[in-house]
Write a structure and sequence with these properties.
Elements lengths: L2 H9 L7 H9 L9 H14 L2 H10 L6 H5 L4 H9 L7 H18 L12 H11 L4 H23 L4
Helix pairs in contact: 1-2, 2-3, 3-9, 4-9
């Protein structure tokens, strides 16, 4: 394996199912040794922001619904499963799960991508409150809000893989 392929294997999932971000960051020279979470995040975020709107929309759409079908079926990525479990989304009551499903469906219908929030440090009530508040955003505002949350999730994932720096 090459250094590039090793890098893509390790960091390609930082932006959910979107290894092109890691590929572009590597190719643009943002992989500076020693790797730090902040340094690599800065480069990867630049590549995410420089991606076309359609590519960025693809990254948003790659994220799973919160407490959705993939979670129930056990088909989330390891990172997503750990993040959702940490917020208690794997232990919802039937009523709470029903509310999440209702909001997931309404949100996806309105915006064309799933509700995305960095759940670390939040609980299910915090997430529901944000969900209910953000569903009233206009599409452009919510696209930018969701993209910022994707960037935050990427930072949190990098912080589990690398020193802060």
């Amino acid at each position: 394996m090459t250094a590039r392929s090793d890098f893509i294997e390790k960091f390609g999932g930082v932006f959910e199912h979107s290894p092109f971000i890691a590929e572009r960051a590597y190719d643009a020279g943002f992989v500076i040794v020693p790797l730090t979470a902040k340094g690599l995040h800065d480069g990867m975020v630049l590549e995410f922001r420089n991606a076309s709107r359609e590519e960025r929309l693809g990254v948003l759409r790659a994220h799973p619904d919160l407490a959705g079908k993939l979670a129930i079926a056990g088909e989330l990525t390891q990172d997503s499963a750990r993040e959702q479990a940490g917020a208690g989304l794997d232990r919802l009551t039937e009523r709470e799960h029903s509310r999440f499903t209702e909001l997931n469906n309404a949100y996806a219908e309105k915006f064309g991508f799933p509700f995305i929030i960095a759940v670390k440090g939040l609980n299910k009530d915090d997430i529901l409150a944000a969900f209910e508040r953000r569903i009233d955003n206009d599409p452009d505002e919510e696209f930018e809000t969701a993209a910022a949350q994707v960037e935050r999730i990427a930072l949190l994932r990098l912080q589990t893989l690398l020193p802060e720096g």
